[in-house]
TrEMBL record:
Organism: Sphingomonas zeae
Feature: compositional bias, Low complexity: 198-208
Name of this protein: DUF4105 domain-containing protein
Signal peptide interval: 1-23
Compositionally biased residues, Polar residues: 211-222
């Protein structure tokens, strides 16, 4: 009997180690305030979806569709902004948060709601810029201390304030992008950029109610 128990224990341990490790998608919040580009805030998604094992490596920001004096006058067309590797490496990783699959889905719904193809894509420097976009993402994660009216045009200062208010919930990074990216382990297989579906009517209404309107994609300003 003792021998059978030992064999069962060995088999159980072998099966445990043979199973793929469960992971999750981590969202990292970034700021960019270097070079000739405008200050910008965005977030990246990296990791593996627990339910499917699908690796993910993507990033999203929000910006005006074109930079012109019209930005200073009021609402203009906006777009999602997908940052290129060099841009990310010259940005600063401020903090990260490990999401559940449900939170990951909520972030994809946010992306769809601000996408000009699937949502309401309007940009307003004072009411709906890149900082408002990451603010909405943080809200969907359940983070607190998000209301900083005087920092809504200051990506780095805003994200540092949010990190400080959630120091017990997030991992504070405060590192240059190049160093942070070098510290990340490789993903198991080639990652994919998630394709968020169009938001449900209720979801779009929630976003519009919280921010006023919606938007879409670039690599620079906020």
């Amino acid at each position: 009997m003792t021998m059978l128990l030992r064999l069962a224990t060995v088999l159980l341990l072998a099966l445990t180690y043979a199973l793929p490790a469960q992971a999750a998608v981590t969202i990292t919040f970034w700021s960019h305030e270097l070079g000739n580009s405008f200050p910008h805030a965005f977030f990246s998604l990296r990791g593996t979806v627990d339910a499917t094992g699908q690796p993910v490596d993507a990033n999203y920001g929000f910006t005006a569709k074109s930079v012109s004096p019209a930005i200073l006058m009021g609402t203009v067309k906006g777009r999602l902004d997908i940052s290129k590797p060099f841009y990310i490496s010259t940005s600063d990783a401020q903090f990260s948060y490990v999401m559940t699959d449900a939170q990951y889905a909520a972030i994809l719904a946010l992306v769809a709601a601000w996408d000009e193809k699937t949502g309401d894509a309007r940009y307003n420097l004072n009411e709906r810029n890149c900082v408002h976009f990451v603010q909405e993402a943080a809200q969907r994660l359940g983070l607190v201390g998000l209301d900083h009216p005087d920092l809504m045009k200051k990506p780095r200062s805003y994200l540092k304030a949010v990190a400080q208010a959630n120091v017990d919930r997030v991992t504070v990074i405060g590192q240059p992008g190049k160093a942070y990216l070098a510290s990340l382990p490789p993903l198991p297989v080639a990652p994919v950029t998630p394709q968020p579906a169009a938001p449900a009517v209720d979801d779009a209404a929630t976003v519009q109610g919280a921010m006023g309107t919606s938007s879409r994609m670039s690599t620079t300003d906020s």
